[in-house]
From TrEMBL, chains A, B:
Example GO BP: L-serine catabolic process
Reaction catalyzed: L-threonine = 2-oxobutanoate + NH4(+)
Any GO MF annotation of the entry: L-serine ammonia-lyase activity
Cofactor(s) the record lists: pyridoxal 5'-phosphate
Organism encoding this protein: Amycolatopsis xylanica
Entry-linked Pfam families: PALP
CDD domains to which the protein is assigned, alphabetical: Thr-dehyd (cd01562)
Name of the featured protein: threonine ammonia-lyase
Listed EC numbers: 4.3.1.19
C-alpha cells in the first residue's frame, strides 16, 4: 500500500501553521529520574489534535471543491475540528451526528457555524454520504484519508524538532490516524525512537490485530465499554498498514489506570485530559516495565470532558 | 528610582532559555468574538512563573558567590522555584518556611534537594537573613530584586513576540514582580497595549496604593482572607515604582469570580489554575466593561493546587 510520506507531512505543516497550535513539549519534573515530556494537544483551540488533520484535508482541496462545502460524521472531536476548519475558510460544513448525542456536544459543533444533522445512530455514515452526494459536499473522514493522516503527523514533526533525541513515543490509538501520522514523522526524523500505540484493554482491537497480522473486528458494544470514548473506533485498511510499519509495539491500559492518569495529569501537570487523551500517560505510569528506559514523549491527544465527568474524575 | 530596563530583560531571556519553558499563547475560541489568549505559566515545570525570576537571579551571581548557595523564605511557588533553580546549578539551597506549612508543600520543596528549615511564622524573614549571614548564602527575594523582576519580564517578551499587536494585558498582582517585569517588556515592545494589574478585592492593597499615589499597608490578617493564597504579598518600594510607571489601571475581582474563573479554565481551556493564577481570567470574564475591547492576553501565573482544593473547586 502507498503510505503517507514525510514530504506530505511537511506540506501539511505549512498548511496548518497559524491554525493548529504548535504545542510545546512539557517536561515533567515529577516523573524524574525517568524523563517524560507531554505533548498537550488538549490545548488546541478545539481541545484535541483533530484540527490538524481536518484543516489539512480541507486546505488541500481545490478551491472550487472546497467552496461547495464539507461534511463529516462524528459526535466527537472530529466534528468540532471539521466545523472549525471549514469556518476558517468560510465554507459550509454539515456534521452528521447520532440523535443520542449530548446537547453540549451538538451545541459545541453548532457554535462553529456548522449545520448539525441528527440521524438514528446506525445511519451516520450512510446519511453523510447521501448528503455529500445530494449537495455536492466533500466528505472529510475522521482518519481514513491520507491528508488527514498527514495533518495529524505534524504533531510528530514538532516532537522531533523539539526533542531530536527522543527515545520513546506513546500515542493513543483509535482509528489510528494520529499514530500513523506521528509514527511516520518520527520514523523519518528520529529513527532511533521506539514508537508505541496505547489502547484501553476494553478496546484493544488494534493490539490483537497487529499480533494476528491482520485487522480484527471487535463488536461496537464491546468497544463501547471503555470510559475512553474517543478510542472506540478501529483502524481502516490504510491506517492499519501504517501502524504495521511504524509501531514498535502496543500497550494496553485498564480503566482504573486511565482514571488515575487523568488525575495525575490534573494534579501534577496542570492539564485537563479526557480519558482517551490520558492513555499514553497511563502506559508510562503503569507499564514502564514494557518500555525502553529513555526520553519519553506521551501524546495527550485531547481534553474535551463534560463538566460532570470532570467532577467525577477529579472530585 | 532606577527601573529595570528592557536590556536587562533580554539578558534574562538568554539566561533562562532552556530552563524556563517558553509557554505558548493559547487562543480561546470560547471567548469569541472577544479575543482572548492565555499565557499558561502553570505549565512551567514547577507549576508557576516564579522559575523565571529565581533562575535569572541565581544565574546572574558570580560563580564564587553562587557556589556557596542560596536561601529563600517562602512557603509557596518561589520556594520551589529557588530550590529547582539551585539544583540546576548544583548549588545548595535553604528554604525557610513557617512551621505551619502543609506537608505537601514542604515535601515538594525538599524533593528538589533543598534543605527546608521550619520556623515560627513571624520569623521567616529574619531567620532567612540570619542563615544567609551565618553560612555565606545569597538571599533570593521573591520579588524585591531587579534580577527577579527582569526574569519575570521574560514572559512579557514572549507575549510581545507571539502577539505583537496585543492590545490588553492582564497580570495578577501580589508583590508586583511579575507585573513589573511583564509591564516593562510590553511597554518597550508593544507600546500601544494597555496593561492592567488584577487583585482580589480582599487583598487590594495595590489598587488602593496606586490610587493614593503611595504604598498602603493592609494588615496580613486582612489579606489572608482571599482564597488566592499567592496574592497576599504587597509590593516593595522597587516594584511599586515599576507599577506606577507601567500599569494603565487595576481591576479587582471577587472570591466567587475567582472560583468561577478556575472552573472556566478547567472546562474550556484544559488548564488547572490555582486561584491566584485565575484572577486575570476572572477580570476578563466579569469586568470586560472596564477594559478596552481588543486582543487580550490573560497571564495564568500558576497552577499549584492541593488535590483537595482541586476536588472542592471543580467537583
Amino acid at each position: 500500500m502507498n503510505l503517507v510520506t514525510i514530504d506530505e507531512i511537511h506540506a501539511a505543516a505549512k498548511r496548518v501553521a497559524g491554525v493548529a497550535l504548535r504545542t510545546p513539549l512539557l517536561p515533567q519534573l515529577w516523573a524524574s529520574p525517568a524523563k517524560l515530556w507531554l505533548k498537550p494537544e488538549n490545548l488546541q483551540q478545539i481541545g484535541a489534535f483533530k484540527v490538524r488533520g481536518a484543516y489539512n484535508a480541507i486546505a488541500a482541496l481545490d478551491e472550487k471543491t472546497r467552496e461547495k462545502g464539507v461534511v463529516a460524521y462524528s459526535s466527537g472531536n472530529h466534528a468540532q475540528a471539521v466545523a472549525f476548519a471549514a469556518k476558517q475558510f468560510g465554507v459550509p460544513a454539515v456534521i452528521v451526528v447520532p440523535d443520542v448525542t449530548p446537547r453540549i456536544k451538538v451545541e459545541a459543533t453548532a457554535s462553529h457555524g456548522a449545520e448539525v444533522v441528527e440521524v438514528p445512530i446506525g445511519q451516520r455514515e450512510s446519511a453523510a454520504h447521501a448528503i455529500a452526494e445530494e449537495r455536492g459536499l466533500t466528505l472529510i473522514p475522521p482518519f481514513d484519508h491520507r491528508n488527514v493522516i498527514a495533518g495529524q503527523g505534524t504533531a510528530g514533526l514538532e516532537i522531533a524538532e523539539d526533542l531530536p533525541d527522543v527515545e520513546v513515543v506513546l500515542i493513543p490509538i483509535s482509528g489510528g490516524g494520529l499514530a500513523s501520522g506521528i509514527g511516520t514523522a518520527i520514523r523519518a526524523l528520529a529513527p532511533n525512537a521506539k514508537i508505541f500505540g496505547v489502547e484501553p484493554e476494553l478496546a484493544a482491537d488494534t493490539a490483537e490485530g497487529l499480533k494476528a497480522g491482520h485487522r480484527v473486528d471487535w463488536p461496537v458494544e464491546k468497544r463501547a465499554r471503555t470510559i475512553a470514548d474517543g478510542l472506540r473506533s478501529q483502524p481502516s485498511e490504510l491506517t492499519f498498514a501504517h501502524l504495521q510499519v511504524v509501531l514498535d509495539g502496543m500497550l494496553t491500559v485498564t480503566e482504573e489506570e486511565i482514571r488515575e492518569a487523568v488525575r495525575v495529569l490534573a494534579r501534577r501537570a496542570g492539564l485537563i485530559a479526557e480519558p482517551s487523551g490520558a492513555v499514553s500517560t497511563a502506559a508510562f505510569l503503569f507499564h514502564a516495565d514494557q518500555l525502553p528506559d529513555g526520553k519519553t514523549v506521551a501524546v495527550v491527544s485531547g481534553g474535551n470532558l463534560d463538566p460532570s465527568a470532570l467532577g467525577e474524575l477529579l472530585g
